[in-house]
Structure formats: structure tokens, C-alpha cells
Amino acid sequence: MIPPVQVSPLIKFTRYSALLVGMIYGKKRYDYLKPIAEEERRIEAEEKKKREELERIAKEIAEASCLLHKLDGGKFADSALDPTVHVTDKTVEQCQLQY
């Protein structure tokens, strides 16, 4: 087996310097991007809460529309409160939510 080659101290120094510079750059970049990502997550959480609230309201409106349709015996205008509710027939069995 051939003995290992002696690596120059200059090459060793350069390699470890590049490693250290990369670690320092990564830490600075992480510290720069972290608050931006936290703000984006906070905004996304607020939007998600609003979206879920709107979906809940739409579901309640659909249920109310379906209930009114059942109580009114089909005389109530189809989907008057919520355009996402589609009633194809005037029977109660087909008055279902689209969720």
C-alpha cells in the first residue's frame, strides 16, 4: 500500500478557512431570513383563520338555505342565500351540502 501524501499546510489552511467562512455566511443568512419567514408564517396564520371563518359562515348559510328549502316545501328560491348550494330537484333528499 502506498503511504498517504503529505498535504501542504497552505492547502489545509485554505480548506478550513473556506469551511469557517461558509459557516459564518450561513449563520448570517439564517439570521437575516428568520424574521422574514416568521412574518410570513404569522400572516399565513391570520389568513387561514379568516378563510376558516368564511368557510364556517358559508356552511351555516348553506345549512340555513337547505333548512328553509325543507321548511318551505320547495317554494323558496333555490340557492338564494348561497350560490354554492345546488338543488336539482324540489325533493328534500337532494338538498345536501357541497362540503
From TrEMBL:
The keyword Acetylation applies. This is ATP synthase F(0) complex subunit e, mitochondrial. Keywords: Acetylation, ATP synthesis, CF(0), Coiled coil, Hydrogen ion transport, Ion transport, Membrane, Mitochondrion, Mitochondrion inner membrane, Transport. F-type ATPases have 2 components, CF(1) - the catalytic core - and CF(0) - the membrane proton channel. CF(1) and CF(0) have multiple subunits. The keyword Acetylation applies. Pfam families: ATP-synt_E. One of its GO terms (molecular function) is proton transmembrane transporter activity. It comes from the Eukaryota. It is found in: Mitochondrion inner membrane. Residues 36-64 form a coiled coil. The lineage of its organism: Eukaryota, Metazoa, Chordata, Craniata, Vertebrata. Subunit e, of the mitochondrial membrane ATP synthase complex (F(1)F(0) ATP synthase or Complex V) that produces ATP from ADP in the presence of a proton gradient across the membrane which is generated by electron transport complexes of the respiratory chain. ATP synthase complex consist of a soluble F(1) head domain - the catalytic core - and a membrane F(1) domain - the membrane proton channel. These two domains are linked by a central stalk rotating inside the F(1) region and a stationary peripheral stalk. InterPro entries: ATP_synth_F0_esu_mt. GO terms for cellular component: mitochondrial inner membrane; proton-transporting ATP synthase complex. GO terms for biological process: proton motive force-driven ATP synthesis. Belongs to the ATPase e subunit family. Its main location: mitochondrion.
